[in-house]
Write a structure and sequence with these properties.
Chain lengths: 215, 260
């Protein structure tokens, strides 16, 4: 499903690893630059200096840019800052990819979205208020939660999380972790990758494989 | 020592910058033209509607005020020059308002309001990494950001130009009638009787060209912003100044092409 073949990009040096269908991995580094570079390479927005990145058996950077964008419909990316669009309200951000790609209409996802927010500690009134806000009014936890739900709604085969628990308290990070791990197990063959700094929060993420990047 | 204005390096950079601009705007227009059918996608259509609201509908208040005042000033000047000659007044009104001031003043108002807003919005999105976010979601930034803006701004310029012309003529004649210079209905009839297809075509051409240039230039300056604290104001200022220059240049070219 995922293969990195001697990938170098900035401070990232000759990284090689492979993940089979249905597995999960955490990739640890003490360098934030390395994590940022790796996430950018995984996201298709930074061509590696050397090496090849394969996702869903496609060589990501051998594809023309327009086709590469199409591949990303099947991948879920959750950046550390949420990657929300600043001129859209929360609800518009949540439904954007699934509505855009025509996979599901806003009406179809409404109850599912509400369910995810309830699972993560919000009541109906809080959800209603949250939906009207723009990204700059949200907390770090809210931004990440919205980015996760937005990715989940696309039912992707591969999910890549960037520093998902960094800077959150134990309770909030516990809720996010439960949500993403339950989602991982919902579909046979799904791959989840957690890019994280080497800290106590990362130690709580249980995965099949751990890769530690060298500085 | 070479004076700064004549420095060959500086001149060379400006010329290359101009080539980049022309190429960039051309590519954006071709992309938008080829992909206009993507407006059928609901999220893109929503951006298109929002653009029409911000550029067209929200501009109606300042446009009404400017058109009314322009109409009053022009009819007063014409009346002082031509007296109560309805035919001559109608001709001058048509030349000034329909051929020239309507498209030009509308373009200037849209540049002041929407060009700077569009360029700074796109520059902010680029600097904050939101354009990469769109790519990560499998959304082509050109489809989602450029096509609805070019279509929305162009359509708004066309309709607002028509609205400006109507308002300026009606309010100008209403004022002239109120102060006793000209009869209202007869004067309007005078305009309608001499309005030819050519006048309508010239006005429409100018509005379409101005709309396309304003929208694509705004997108171009917004999307080429680099990560720096001054990038957003630079994008907004660059878009406004280039648009003003282009609108006047193109107005001259079109007027020459149609009437000389």
């Amino acid at each position: 499903m995922i293969r990195f073949d001697r990938v170098s990009a900035g401070t990232l040096r000759a990284l090689s690893f492979e993940m089979a269908s249905g597995t999960s991995a955490k990739i640890l580094s003490s360098s934030e630059d390395q994590i940022n570079a790796l996430f950018a390479v995984c996201s298709g927005v930074r061509r590696p200096d050397t090496g090849h990145v394969y996702m869903l058996d496609e060589d990501v950077y051998a594809m023309p840019p327009d086709e590469r964008i199409l591949l990303f419909r099947r991948l879920g990316m959750v950046p550390e800052n949420g990657g929300l669009i600043s001129n859209l309200k929360t609800w518009e951000n949540l439904i954007l990819p699934s509505w855009y790609h025509g996979t599901r209409s806003p009406d179809e996802v409404e109850s599912e979205v509400l369910g995810y927010f309830r699972e993560t500690g919000f009541n109906n009134e809080q959800v209603k208020n949250l939906m009207r806000k723009r990204p700059d009014e949200l907390t770090k936890y809210e931004k990440r939660l919205i980015a996760i739900i937005r990715a989940i709604l696309m039912n992707p085969d591969i999910l890549i999380y960037d520093s998902i628990l960094t800077g959150l308290d134990r309770e909030a990070s516990g809720r996010l972790l439960t949500l993403v791990q339950e989602f991982h197990n919902k579909k046979t063959g799904r791959v989840s990758v957690y890019l994280c700094p080497e800290d106590a929060a990362a130690a709580r993420i249980q995965t099949d494989q751990t890769v530690t990047l060298k500085n | 020592m070479i004076p700064t204005a004549l420095n060959p390096e500086r001149i060379g950079k400006s010329v290359l910058g101009l080539f980049d601009y022309v190429q960039g705007v051309y590519e954006l227009l071709v992309y938008a033209g080829m992909g206009i059918g993507r407006l059928a996608k609901p999220p893109i259509r929503l951006v298109f509607k929002k653009q029409i609201y911000f550029t067209g509908i929200e501009a109606l208040v300042p446009i009404t005020a400017i058109a009314t005042l322009s109409g009053i000033v022009i009819t007063t000047q014409i009346a002082s020059l031509a007296g109560q000659n309805i035919g001559l007044t109608a001709k001058i009104m048509l030349w000034v308002v329909v051929r020239e001031l309507g498209p030009l003043l509308t373009a200037i108002v849209i540049i002041a309001r929407s060009s700077s807003a569009t360029a700074s919005e796109l520059a902010t999105m680029k600097i904050r990494g939101e354009i990469d976010s769109l790519r990560r979601m499998g959304i082509h930034p050109g489809d989602y950001l450029v096509i609805p803006r070019i279509a929305g701004i162009t359509l708004s310029v066309i309709t607002v130009t028509f609205y400006f012309q109507m308002t300026a003529i009606v309010m100008g004649y209403a004022f002239a009638s109120l102060v006793g210079y000209l009869p209202f209905i007869k004067s309007l009839g005078g305009i309608v009787s001499i309005l030819s297809m050519k006048e309508v075509l010239v006005s429409l051409t100018k509005a379409v060209v101005f709309g396309l240039v304003i929208s694509s230039t705004s997108c171009y300056f917004g999307l080429r912003a680099r990560a720096s604290p001054t990038a957003v104001p630079q994008a907004a200022t660059g878009a406004v100044m280039r648009n003003l220059l282009m609108v006047f240049v193109l107005d001259g070219i079109l007027t020459y092409a149609f009437f000389v």
